[in-house]
Design goal:
Length: 262
């Protein structure tokens, strides 16, 4: 009888949640941070690829890119894409643009960026290709590594930037490898991001998929879903225009994050 009562007590404990599954916080955090990394990469690419069609995408048809002229145009217009005025300094040398940021802000979640970024342009069969890397860069007060390369294509007023990104915050991920696309209509101020890849932190490994993540300048994300998977299952985040992101774990438990957006 005593043994039976003990078994009942164990069952009651299990049902009460005392044996609830626990997951490493990294998995929740990555489902929150990965779309931020997408937003950072997207805004650099957006500002590099003439979103308003005023310089090298102003020609009516595809033609060879003058990468030196493109670099000069980017350097001249750097201050137009970052606030406050004067926070971004840029100089062009041939096909390379060197940026220095001092507490700059931009769209799609770019906050308090300081440090150096080097952009190198090239012509890829009449389309503008790029490589972007950083030196002593911080975003939101923490170290951030910008490491992207890609190419932009156009069809009418639509722009598509296809990128490989290793950008990350060293505090949040040891490695990151994402294949992503960013699309927008010329002059719209809004982008849609899709991609997949993975990350590591120490001995923790994840794969991540970002689907139809949509964000406009100076707004919270309006749509999209992030799925981060590991050996325990999937952690998901969905966006609906509010300033809060809710990450749902495989067991249904949730964790809320402030998106720090308008």
């Amino acid at each position: 009888m005593k043994r039976f009562k003990t078994m009942l007590s164990l069952v009651a404990l299990a049902m009460s949640g005392c044996y609830a599954t626990t997951y490493d916080p990294y998995y929740y955090d990555y489902a929150y941070y990965d779309p931020y990394y997408y937003g950072y990469d997207a805004y650099y690419a957006y500002s590099w690829f003439d979103p308003y069609g005023v310089y090298y995408f102003s020609a009516p048809s595809a033609q060879a890119i003058d990468v030196n002229a493109a670099a000069a145009a980017l350097a001249q217009r750097a201050d137009a894409y970052y606030t406050p005025a004067g926070c971004a300094q840029a100089t062009a040398s041939g096909a390379t643009v060197n940026y220095t940021f001092n507490n700059c802000e931009g769209a799609f979640g770019l906050k308090s960026v300081s440090g150096g970024v080097k952009l190198t342009l090239s012509d890829s069969n009449g389309q503008l290709a790029f490589t972007g890397t950083s030196t002593d860069l911080t975003a939101g007060g923490v170290p951030f590594i910008l490491d992207v390369n890609g190419v932009a294509t156009r069809s009418g007023t639509q722009r598509v930037v296809t990128m490989t990104s290793h950008s990350r915050s060293p505090e949040q991920a040891s490695t990151r490898d994402e294949q992503m696309t960013v699309t927008w209509e010329q002059g719209s101020g809004c982008v849609t991001m899709n991609g997949q890849g993975g990350s590591t932190k120490g001995d923790l490994t994840t794969t991540a998929t970002v689907a139809n993540y949509q964000r406009c300048q100076n707004q919270c994300p309006t749509a999209g879903k992030v799925t981060v998977e590991n050996k325990d299952g999937a952690f998901t985040t969905e966006f609906n225009g509010t300033s809060t992101a809710k990450v749902t774990a495989p067991d249904g438990s949730t964790k809320n994050y402030d998106l720090k957006c308008p």
